[in-house]
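Suppose a colleague, Dr. K., hands you the sequence of a protein chain of 130 amino acids and asks what its three-dimensional shape might be. Before reaching for any lab equipment, you can write down a predicted structure in token form. Begin with the sequence itself:
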Amino acid sequence: QVHLAESGGGLVQPGGSLRLSCEASGKSLNYYAIGWFRQAPGKEREGVSCITPNGDSTYYTDSVRGRFTISRDNAKSTTFLQMNSLKPEDTAVYYCAAGLGPVCPYSDDVVASSNNYDYWGQGTQVTVSS
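The predicted structure, expressed as tokens, is then:
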């Protein structure tokens, strides 16, 4: 069994930064792609970013490209999402997830599809507000 735990969320002013962490336990995720998703109230879950198992490729949805950076440290079973220049529209619950196979990216237009990810964290709230 795999357990994913997100941390690092919180309240930040527009233009600020947060660094989310996703720590895995239970078994090695070195062969899994890791995706970050978010879900705002009343909206569908959205794939924000993903990183391939060995970390050599990263992908971002258009709305966060240039502001967010995904990275992973397989030795520590941890994946990070550095979020800079945060905007109120980034407010959401952020989830990390792990998936096997060619799930990152999902397609040319979609970074990550939640249906393709096997293990999920409980989520961490990010609120961007003045």
